[in-house]
Amino acid sequence: MSPEKKRRIARETMEVYVPIAHRLGLNNIYRELQDLSFSHLYPMRYKTLSKAVRAARGNRREVVSKILESVKNTLAAAGIQAQVFGREKTLYGIYRKMRNKHLTFSQVLDVYGFRIVVDSFANCYVALGTLHALYKPMPGKFKDYIAIPKLNGYQSLHTTLIGPYGTPVEFQVRTQDMHRVAESGVAAHWLYKNAEGSLTDLQQRTHAWLQSLLDIQKQTGDSAEFLEHVKVDLFPDSVYVFTPKSKIIALPRGATALDFAYTIHTDIGDQTIAAKINHEQAPLRTELRNGDIVEIITSPTSRPSPNWLTFVRTGKARSAIRHHLRTVNLFESIDLGKRLLSQAMAGLKLDPELPDHLAERLLNESSAKSLDELYADIGVGKRMAALVARHILALVEDASPPLPPPEDTGAVHHDHGKLDPVIIYGSEGVAVQLAACCLPIPGDNIIGQLKRDQGLIVHIADCGLARRQRAKEPDRWIEVMWGSELNRRFDCRIMVLIKNEKGVLARVAAEIGESDANITYVGMDDDKDQLMTQLRFTVQVEDRIHLARMMRNVRRIPGVTRMVRERN
Questions:
Q1: Does 400 score more than 60 pLDDT?
Q2: DSSP helix/strand/coil, 410
Q3: What are the counts of helices (DSSP H) followed by strands (DSSP E) for the chain?
Q4: Among 34, 175, 396, 511, which residue carries the largest CB count within 10 Å?
Q5: What is the mean pLDDT of residues 281-310?
Q6: How far apart are the first and last CA of the chain?
Q7: Which fold has domain 3-192?
Q8: What is the DSSP string of 466-522?
């Protein structure tokens, strides 16, 4: 193959298949894929290191044989049956250590590695004590992966000792079963276990991980998204936390309390409302640390929020949240799309109820599988209601061929002003969103933007961002208006300029509360030495009248010099 194609395949192998092999504990395949990819990604570095390792092997023979002999004799004297053999680093392992830790080749090769395979679980610890009696251990260089296995099921005792000539010597101590899993992966358990033997904890965890891969695959829209979710879960670095019943849960480093909830079960994650970490309330975005005890509080009425995607770490959590939002959004998008199409058809004097033969022709010519899919596409902005209505008009009149596909939004202009406005109640869900740039509230003049894959975005009519985007894509804007019965409160940003004097912030906050408005955010200038300070609040109000009443009350407070509603 061409060098570029070799590098592309090697890079893909290194980024995807090597971590999967590592995650499943397929050590032999992991090492082989790593070295093969390395040889094609960096052929000159591979050749240089390979030559250097072959030259160094001869110089190391005397030290290796001396350590092997001493360890075998000591273990035999302690009555421990064991196989002892040297362990060589892979070329890529040497290269990575040189690059990441800024070490020379000789510094990396100065560490000698040995593996000791004993006959029983208990003898792992006896062998460890024997080794520590033979050579002095290096402080802080001991890890017990038998008590707490790695995410991929790997189990061994790791210790680094000061060997002959003052050289560091790394030892891995394990049983035959552990060695089999370390080399051949967790699947080796299924090959060697007795027929009547039940699944071990290790097998159950691996089975759960493989099952989560299948769940992610089912919930994911396309291969690129699937790959994004899976790559997140392939990091070997992990934290170990406990459930309230002391069960150990392994998670990728950086995982949050919400990731923990989804790891336990998708339904628990979906219904999470709060978390306790070490018996204290903590935000769901809190990053977990080794040894944390995590308790999840759920509510049957709770549902995932789009905001959760900004802080979850695991692929399972991310795909489950996206799947839920996509599913919920579907029903809301269908409803919105139906309303938009009915409105557009009414403007063209068409009956919103389509006869079966027309509906069939419309679906065939628009490549939609069902009317619901067509409505959903309109609801999320993939198709324009005005263009679909014109298409239906052409079918009804059986005249000219269908109009260009909805993507050619510049080809047909439709006068939306003649149509009845879409009614906004504020409770439509994720299919209808209030723009974050201007945060419209009832009483504001509003306009709607049909945004691809996001549905209907409602802006204040004189919003600067809306004006700029409307000039670029006029066909994606429709008339909207507030409904008469609104049963929720709406966020609104205000800025208050105050004199830096004692108690003024408390008085402002108290007055906002007494005006029956709820504060959801407060911020202020960092510079406290100025005579004047700007306070920024996000408050929840019913409408413009409620906001005006609250602002009037706050302006009366001594020390408040200015108060305005903020828009980006």
A1: no
A2: coil
A3: 20, 19
A4: 34
A5: 87
A6: 53
A7: Beta Polymerase; domain 2 (3.30.460)
A8: HHHHHHH-GGGEEEEEE-S---S-EEEEEEEEEES-TTHHHHHHHHHHHTT-EEEEE
| Interatomic CA distance for residues 324 and 219, integer angstroms | 9
Q: Above pLDDT 90, what percent of the chain?
A: 25
For the full predicted model, state whether its pTM sits above 0.70: no
User: What token pair was written down for 194?
Assistant: 């007795």
| Partners of residue 133 on adjacent β-strands | none
Q: Where does the chain hold its CATH 3.30.460.10 domain(s)?
A: 3-192
- The per-residue pLDDT for range 58-69, each reduced to its tens digit, is 667 777 888 888
In angstroms, rounded to a whole number, what is the distance separating the alpha carbons of residues 239 and 228? Answer: 21
C-beta of residue 506 within 8 angstroms of C-beta of residue 472: no
Tokens at residue 302, please?
């709770």
Give the model's pLDDT for residue 460.
Answer: 92
Tokens at residue 108, please? 């990396």
The two three-digit tokens of residue 257, written as one number: 């309390």
Query: Amino acid identity of 417?
Result: G
What CATH code would you report for 490-565?
3.30.70.260
* Residue from 328, 534, 524, 556 nearest 430 by CA: 328
Separation of alpha carbons 445 and 482, rounded Å: 9
